[in-house]
Design brief:
The protein is of the alpha/beta class. Helices cover about 30% and strands about 20% of the residues. The chain contains 10 helices and 9 strands. β4 and β5 form a beta hairpin.
Length: about 240
């Protein structure tokens, strides 16, 4: 199976700041590079936190309405400290939630969801910052073309992995939506073929119209959104 990794999708020209970078300098970095957050690194280049637009806006959020119509927002002590911070060290959310270049898209997406973040600094084995990956970067796998998806399902899933006769199964792909039809030797292979097809990069949905040889009734099953694939030890990278 061929899967793109975080290292294939991340931005390597990372804009970062030091812990003593001032408030206005951080704002200028975000505006200059058209980004919404910036990692904070120590003297060795290891990420120790992230400053986002939300962190910076605590300063405005803590103030009373200039028109006198609304009282100042009630902030927790940690949020109040950010509202009065002047440097990245006080503004940042820490510790930094990081990813590794060899992570799959699934691993990165789950980390973002679990920690409620929109981006992950990417570190090497020494913990040094080597890139940053965002939600938008992860979505790039769905830009993969239909012919490439069809070729991988036919060659890698059906022929090499399951040992099926490619002439017995038809694979149709339209806008990432896959339809499998035809016959397989055993009914037990049907859910396996569907599950592996769902795990192919760029697949949005799989509809199953496969049936086992000798079955009088087609085992048709209309599937919902592609299931989340499990981590596989035999994944490799594929080029754009």
């Amino acid at each position: 199976m061929l899967h793109r990794m975080v290292g294939d999708l991340m931005t390597t020209a990372v804009v970062s700041v030091r812990r003593d970078t001032g408030f206005k300098d951080i704002v200028q970095h975000l505006a200059e590079y058209n980004i919404t957050a910036v990692p904070v690194v120590d003297d060795q280049g290891r990420p120790i936190g992230v400053v986002s637009e939300a962190d910076l806006l605590r300063k405005q959020e803590s103030q009373a309405d200039p028109g006198g119509h609304l009282a100042a927002a009630h902030l927790l002590s940690a949020e109040r400290a950010k509202a009065h911070a002047l440097t990245a060290e006080g503004l940042m959310t820490s510790p930094a939630v990081t990813a590794r270049p060899q992570w799959s898209v699934v691993e990165a997406a789950r980390a973002m969801a679990r920690h409620h973040v929109k981006r992950l600094p990417v570190v090497d084995d020494a913990g040094l910052l080597v890139g940053i990956v965002s939600r938008g970067d992860l979505l790039h796998v769905f830009l993969r073309r239909d012919p490439a998806i069809r070729e991988e399902i036919t060659t890698e899933v059906l022929t090499r992995t399951l040992g099926l006769d490619p002439g017995a199964v038809t694979v149709q792909v339209t806008d990432g939506r896959v339809t499998l039809s035809g016959t397989v030797p055993q009914s037990s292979l049907i859910p396996i073929a569907v599950r592996l097809s769902e795990s192919v990069d760029g697949v949005v949905d799989v509809t199953n119209h496969l049936r086992a040889v000798g079955d009088g009734t087609a085992q048709a099953l209309s599937r919902g959104p592609a299931a989340t694939p499990s981590k596989s030890s035999n994944r490799h990278r594929w080029g754009p």
